[in-house]
Amino acid sequence: MTAVAQPPPVPEVPATVPAPRAASVLRRLVRHRLAAAGLVVVGLLVVFSFLGPLVHPADQSVTNLQEASLPPGSAGHLLGTDGVGHDVLGRLMIGGRTSLIIGIATGLLATVIGTVYGAVSGYFGGRVDAVMMRVVDAGIAIPALFLLLTAAAIIRPSVTSMVLILGFVSWLVPARLVRAEALSLRTRDYVAAVRAVGGSGTRIILRHIVPNTVGTITVNATFQVADAILLIAYVSFLGLGVPPPATDWGGMLSDGVTNIYSGAWWLIFPPGLAIVLVVCAFNLIGDGLRDAFEIRRSR
Amino acid sequence: MTEAAADSAADSAPVLTVRDLRISFPGGESRVDAVRGVDLELRRGEVLALVGESGSGKSVTALAAMGLLPPDAQVAGRLLVGDRDVTRLGPAELRDMRGREIGMVFQEPTTALNPVLTVGDQIGEALTNHENLTAAQVRERTLELLEAVGIPEPAERMRAYPHQLSGGLCQRVVIAMAVACNPAVIIADEPTTALDVTVQAQIMRLLRELRDSRGTAILLITHNMGVVADLADRVAVMRDGVVVEVGTAEQVLTDPQHEYTTALLAAVPRLGSGSRAAATDEPAADRPPTVLHLQDVRVEYRTLGRPAVRAVDDVTLAVRRGEVVGLVGESGSGKSTIGRCALGLVPATAGHVTLLGVDQRRLRGSRGRRVRRGVGVVLQNPASALDPRMTVGDSIAEPMVIHRVGSRAERQQRVRRLLDDVRLPAAAADRYPHEMSGGQRQRVGLARALSLGPDLVIADEPTSALDVSVQETVLRLLTELQAVHGFGCLFISHDLAVVESVAHRVVVLLGGRIVEEGATQDVLHRPREDYTRLLISSVPVPDPVQQAARRAAADAVLRESARALAG
C-alpha cells in the first residue's frame, strides 16, 4: 500500500456534544458554587457523625435520669440532654450515622435495581417493556409511606431491613428514567453494530446502554439519597424506625416532640436542622451534577 | 439568461452587503473566531453561492444576515440588508425585517415546519406577520403562493399537515413561506441537502424560476458543487472564516485560482470519471464464493391496527468475495432495510437470506455467532456509530472480545495494526470518539468492521455525513483495504458518483424493488431503464456549461416518460 489518505486540509468540527468524562464532571461540579457548598456540608456531616464520637465520646446505651433534660451549655453537655439523660450532641452523631448509612445505602440499592430493570425494559422494548413498565406503574400507584408502615409493622426494624424496604419502594423512579433513555440509546448505530457482530443482549445493556445513562443515574442517585433520608425520618418519627438505644435523626425528632411542651427546644432543633441541612445539601449536589453533565445548559 | 441577469444586476444597488464581517463565539478559555473578515455583495436577481466545508463559517455568516446568531456571539463589521445594518437593529426592527426584506429556507423541511399546524395556516402566519389581511385575502394569497411554488392541487394541500406531504413538497412550502412577503433576498441554507436527487433537481428548478419571475436575490449556502453549477451566478469559496476566492460560477468551477478551491473540486466525486471493472469474464467455477445471497426477500413492517408496509419486495441479489456491490436508490427505496435485513437486524417476512453460506434463520445461538465473525459493518452517522463512553481501542477490540479471539495483549496488538491500516496513529486507541473528527471516527468504524478479518462488509452510507475531501480519503481507504483483504462488500448509498468510484456492480432500487442491475459501467453509463436514466441525469455536475446540458437532458427524460404514461 502506498501512502495515501493525507489528513484533510480543513479542520473538522466534531458533530456531537462531547460526552463529559468523570474528571471534567468533577471539575465542573467543584466550580459550581451551590454544589460545592452541598459537598462541603455533606462532608462536614459525615465527619461529624463518624469521627465526632472520637472527639466527644458520649455513652448512648445507658440512661442517666440524674442528668435528664439538661438545657444546652450544661457542663459536659454542649447541646444538653434528653428525657432519659442521653447527651444530645453525642446522640446527634450516632443518629446521623444511621441516617446517612441508610440514606446512602438505600440510594445505591434503588439506583442499581432501577437502572438494571429500566435498561432491560427499554432495550428489549415491545411486550417485555409493556409488562415491565406496568409493574412499575402499579408500584408507583401504591403510596410508599403506606407500604413502609405496613412493612415496618411486620418486620422488626434494623438498619439492613430498613435499607431493603426503602430500596424496594424507591427504585421505581430511576427505572422509568433509565428505561426512557434506553429506548433511544438502543436505536443508536453503535448498538446495531454490536448486534450485527453477534454481541449478546447482556453485553449491550451492561457495556453500551447503562454507561451512557450514567449522567441521569448519578443525578438521580443523589436525589434518591436525599429522599431516603427524608423517608427514614418519616418512618422513625412515626415510631417505626430503628429501635432504641440506636436512633436516627427522625427518631430523635419523634422523642423530642413528646417533650416540646416542657420547653425542651434543644431536643427538636438540632435533629430537625440536621435533616434539613443534609437533604438540601444532597439536592444541591444533584442540581450541580445535572449542570455539570449538561455542558450546554451551564453556559 | 444567466448573463442577462448578471448584466441587469450590475447597475442596481446591492440588496445585501457584507463588509469586513467578524464573528466570534466563546469556546473554552479564549474566543473562537468563526468568521474573520468577510466581504460579500449580492444584487437583485442574482444567485450567490457560499461554498465551503463544515467549520468554514458559511452558515454562521448566513445566520448573521438574518440576525439569528445566539446572544453570546460577538459581531463586528457591517451587514447591510438594503440600507439597514442588521448588526445594529433591535429585536423589534429585526422582526420587522425578517420575512419582509429577507427570507430563509432551511435545510431540513420536515423540522422547519410545525407538525401541528396545516401548511395553509403556516403560510398565512408568514403573511400576517407583516400585513393586515382579512381571512379571505390570506386564503387567496396562500393559494397564489402554493401555486407559485408548484404544489399540485393547492386548495386541497392547504389543509394538509406537514407529515402528509413528501419532503420535496414540504420544502416547497418552506420556500413559499420564505417568499410570502416578497423579500428582496432569500437565504437558502443547504436547501436540497436533505432531499433525493430527483427532488433536488425540481427544487433547484423552482428556485431558478422564482429568481427569474420575482427578481429575488438568493444567497445559496451549500457544500454541493453540482448545486452551485446548476444555480449560482457567482461563487464565494470560504475556508476557516475567510473568503478565499470569489468569481462567476463558470470561472471558479472551471478555472479555480486558489489552491483550496482546486483541492475542493478535485475531491468532488464525479459521475462518469471511470469505474472499477466487474469480474465477469471468469468461468463460473473459478468465481469466488458467494458471501451474501438474498433470494426473493420481502420485508414488511407491521404496526398494530394498520396495514403492513412493504419496504422490500422480492429482492434477489448476491455478493461474492472480492467484489463491491453498490446498492443505490432514493429515500424509501428500501436500500437500508436490505442492509439491516442482511445483518439480521430486521427479519425477512418472506424469502431466504444466506449469510456466508448459512441460512439467516439458523443463525441463532453459538453457531450464529461463529458465522457472524465473518461479517463487518460500517454505519452512516459518525456521531452515533461509536459508543461515546468507550475508547476507540475498546470499540475496535469489542468484536474480538465478543468472539473471544486472542489474549488481551494480542488484541491490543491487532488494534494497533488496524489503526495503522486506516491511517490513524496508535495513540488514537486511548482517545474517545468526541476527540476525533467525523472522518477519523468513520475510519475507526472501518477498523472495527475489519477487526475479525471479515469475508463480508456491509457499509450503509458510510460517507454521506462527511465533507467531500474527507469522503474522498475514506472511500480511497475502503477500496484499498477491500483490494488487499478481498472481502465482499455491500455498499449502500444514495450518491451515484460515490457508488461509481467503489462498486464493481450496481443494483438500482425503487420502492423496494430492483429496477436495474449489472456491471457499474453498464448501469451508470448505458442505463436501460427510464428511472435509472432519470436518476443519473438528476445528479448535478460541478461544471455550469455541462450542467446546463444535463438539465436539458433530464427535462427531456421527464417529458418522454410523461408522454409514455399518457400514451
What's the short version?
The complex is a heterodimer of chains A (299) and B (567). In chain A, 68% of the residues lie in helices and 0% in strands. Chain A has 299 residues and is mainly α.
Which CATH-level-2 architecture of chain A? Orthogonal Bundle
- Helix amount of chain A: 55-70%
CATH superfamily of chain A: MetI-like
User: Oligomeric form of this entry?
Assistant: heterodimer
Radius of gyration of chain B: 25 Å
How widely separated are the two ends of chain A? 47 Å
At CATH level 3, the topology of the largest domain in chain B is: Rossmann fold
Residue share in helices of chain B? 40-55%
Largest interface: A-B, 37 and 61 residues
Low-confidence stretches of chain B: 1-7
Strand order of the largest sheet of chain B: 6-7-8-3-9-10
Poorly predicted runs of chain A: 1-18
General description of the model:
- Chain A has 13 helices and no strands.
- Chain A has one domain: MetI-like fold (Orthogonal Bundle), CATH 1.10.3720.10.
- Chain A has 299 residues and is mainly alpha-helical.
- Chain B has 567 residues and is of the alpha/beta class.
- Chain B has 4 domains: 185 residues, P-loop containing nucleotide triphosphate hydrolases (Rossmann fold), CATH 3.40.50; 70 residues, no CATH class; 182 residues, 3-Layer(aba) Sandwich (Rossmann fold); 66 residues, no CATH class.
- Chain B is 40% helix and 24% strand.
- Chain B is built from 22 helices and 20 strands.
- In chain B, the strands form 4 sheets. Chain B has a 6-stranded mixed beta sheet with strand order 6-7-8-3-9-10, with helices on both faces. Chain B has a 6-stranded mixed beta sheet with strand order 16-17-18-13-19-20, with helices on both faces. In chain B, strands 2-1-4-5 form a 4-stranded antiparallel beta sheet.
- In chain B, a hairpin with a 2-residue loop joins β1 and β2.
- In chain B, α5 crosses α6, α12 crosses α18 and α17 runs parallel beside α18.
- Chain B starts with a helix and ends with a helix.
- The N terminus of chain B is likely disordered.
- The interface between A and B is large, with 37 and 61 residues.
